[in-house]
Amino acid sequence: MHADSARTWRGGQNQVLLTSRGMAARGHEVWVACQTGAPLESRARAQGLAVRPMAFHGDFSPGALVALARLLHETRPHVVHLHDPHAVSAGLAVSSLAPGFRRIASRRVDFPLRGALSRWKYGACRRVIAVSRAIAAQLEADGVPRERIRVVYEGVPDRAPPPDGRRALEELGVPVGAPVVGNVAALTGHKDHATLLEAAALVRRQRPDVWFVLVGDGELRRRLEEQARALGLEPGLVFAGFRDDVDRLLAAFDVFCLSSHLEGLGTSLLDAMVFARPIVATAAGGIPEAVEDGVTGRVVPPRDPPALAGVLVEMLADDARLRAMGAAGRRRYEERFTADRMVAETLAVYEERDA
Asked: How confident is the model at residue 6 (pLDDT cuts 50, 70, 90)?
């Protein structure tokens, strides 16, 4: 059984769905327990998964605890996989009411665990799956026993690049033939679009033909739009907002750029690698585990606009290098970041027996 209380965390939802669907395809009975009315509920149903919506409100919401305990009694799962902090709390709270299952938690962010309760509840799980070595190191630093931590890299599905990506860019106002640096990320603080905008201004001084396309929405959109205007980036920069056709745009970017100062791994990086896009990213969290500097892209220090701008200008000047890095990224995806590998390694964690 998979439990996740998040309403809008799309990256995490994708991993819940991929893992659940992959396990169901291997013949396992799978239930998804999720926030009532959340996008995950409708998406899981649309993919044919068994779903039980619950009223998650904070760590120990009574309605969710009762519903979760009832589901555990009905289904008697061998494993309950807890995909976010509220779900971890709920799983621990009901473990005495419906004993016998293995508690497995996932951790996808490299933020430190906040407070003694968080450190205790993750440490009390049978295993904690970290999606990068950087997150595993943070969990250990926060007191989670090393022997309970396992690294399973996130994976994304393979698919062919849509054929009409350049048309999608043109629909956003990007001129035909213009080089495009693209970003796909929620407009939140730790993604640090402010640094990307400052770097874009520096790039445009040397390469006024380069366009920047930011795909995603979030709480900082208005502030970032004001910053872009102050930097004189319009025209030449597009806030594309939330899109249902992200693959069309992503496959058409000349360079994919991620400017985060905190990042567990970055599934948008993996999506870029599927489409053989070269990457420029920061050395935050688990990013260097995905992007090999000088091979699949370039890695620069976080919060350093001149460094970010410098490598963007350098890479955009060499088409052959862009193609070589993109091809290397595609090979790295096939070796390390497929959805099938993620599911297989997660199942292996479920089946571990303590000595």
From this structure: low
